Fold:
Amino acid sequence: MKKTSKIALGGCSILVILVGIAGILFIFAGVFLVRKDTLKNSEALVILSGGGEERLEAGASLYHDGKVRRIILTETDELQTGSSTSITSINYDALASRYGIDKSKIYKTKKTSSSTYEEAQAILSLMKQKEWKTLIIVTDNFHSRRTGMIFDKIFRGSGIKLSVQPVNVQNNWYDPLKWWKDSESRDVTVLEYIKIFYFLSGQYEK
Structure:
């Protein structure tokens, strides 16, 4: 009887430990999605497409702080709602007019990209053409882990040093420590993990 009780108690203890581990993994699922590298002065900074004004603000702030010499925007097929004007062109004008960045310091990739993977390829092509050797990548916090994975792979062997910088992690709408508390954050978290697994399987975004 005592032996049975010990076995049951041991089983309960293991179950409690497993539940605890699962709970920790659940809570920190959002934290894992955030990658923030050591920030060093770089020759160029790219503001990835998508996202909102926060990415532009973060990139412009680093530029004015003297962390980068120039800013890159990725050309995409995304258009302003109800207009034929591309979002890239709108962002270009915003950096120049609203954020006071000289247009000669703003570059756009030549190839139109429709995914982060294609953006990385287009940026690598521009970096090689210009012979720039250091790059800061600005994107949303929840998107930064996967972005780093993709850029690390695409830029491997190029000799270009990368630094991923998520936009204002503390004040961003996506809170990695409370990602399960609203539907938008839950959807984003699940989608990011699906895309990470997809990437790790060797099936790159098209």
The chain has one domain: 33-200. The chain has seven helices and five strands.
